[in-house]
Every structure is written in C-alpha cells, then in structure tokens.
Amino acid sequence: MCNLKDKVDQNILWNVGKGNINFWYDNWSPIVPLYKMIEDDLIQQNIMIKEIYNDGQWNWSYFQVQPPDKIKLLVSQLHLILDDDTDDTSHWICSNSGRCSISTAWNLLRRKRQFSQFDSRIWHMDIPFKKSFLTRRAVHDKLSTDDKISMFGINLPSICSSCIGPTLSNRSETVEHLFCDDQYA
Ligand SMILES: [Zn+2]
C-alpha cells in the first residue's frame, strides 16, 4: 500500500501558494521529491515550506537535523513566492486536465501485461463468455477430461463418447483428442 501511495504522490505536482506543502515528501520542486535524495534518518517529516521559507530566504536553522549541502544548494536556487491568499494547488500529471480521476489512477497503478492476440480473439463481446472460458481452459489444458481425472488417482476406463463403436477408434478422452482428432473437432 505504501508503494502505491508513493507512486501516486510522484504524479501529483504542487504549485506553491500558502506553503502548506511538505518540504520533503510533496512534489513541489523540479528536484522531486527531496526525500529520495537523502537517508531516512535525516528527514523531519512534518516540515512545511511556509515554516522554513520567509521573504525569499530559507531558514535552515529551523531544521533540527541539517539537510545535506546538496539539498540546500539546489533548493536555494529555487525562487518561490508564498502568498497567504492563494491556496496550494495540485496538478495530476496523468490527465490532460490536471484533475485526478479513478480511471487515470487505475491506469497508473494497475499491472499491465503484454498485449495478447490470443486473448483478444477469445475474449470478445460477440463470443459468449462460457465459450471463451472453455477455450481458455482447453488451451491451458485445464479441462477435467478423463486423463486429468486419472492424475488424482481416479482411474476409470476412458473412451471418447463420440468415438465408441465397433467401427470407430475408441479413443480415450483427452483435450488433444476432443479438440483436434475427434470426428466432431
Ligand atoms: Zn472422439
């Protein structure tokens, strides 16, 4: 869950207004986010920008544990303008509008698999679900044919029901036979 939050936070950019933005964790600068640049024990989590930035100056003495010089140097080069009358605003970079939506968040967080031509052919709105499901099970050899049942120690005589007869082959029931060799395949 923390990884998901981290991933979401990285896609929220903040425009500084009043400065109620977390110095370390929020994505408010081009150097984003700052906590990734230092060791965890150097971070004081609840420092807000408005607490350490006044009149164009960064008040480093506010920190109980001093940030590394590289952080100070990088941050000092940024020119912020705090405005008590302007709210801090967020921008969701995963959408053109900048507004977060469930669909854009889902697309960001979900695991995407490689596009499968096979899946796109069997899972189609024109194909009944049970046929798609049957095809998938057959391809992955997951149907409960006699040969599969025998693997659980249930050994019964196996003959394909459409192949029974004195002039027929009396083949046993397997996925390969049912879908490839059988007379009705
Ligand atoms: Zn058969």
What is the fold's blueprint, element by element?
Layout: H1 2-9, E1 12-15, H2 49-52, E2 53-54, E3 57-58, H3 69-76, E4 89-92, H4 102-109, H5 117-122, H6 129-139, H7 146-150, H8 175-181
Antiparallel strand pairs: 1-4, 2-3
The structure holds zinc ion (ZN).
- Which ligands are bound? zinc ion
Continuous helix count: 8
Structural class: mainly alpha
What are the low-pLDDT stretches, counting only 5+ consecutive residues below 50? none
Can you give the helix content as a percent range?
Answer: 25-40%
Reading the helices and strands in chain order gives HEHEEHEHHHHH
> Rough shape?
rod-shaped
Averaged pLDDT: 86
Give the end-to-end Cα distance, rounded to a whole number of Å.
48 Å
- In quaternary terms, these chains amount to single chain
Major sheet details: 2 strands, antiparallel
**Strand tally, please?**
4
Proportion of beta-strand residues: 5-15%
Sequence of strands across the biggest β-sheet: 1-4
Query: Gyration radius, to the nearest Å?
Result: 31 Å
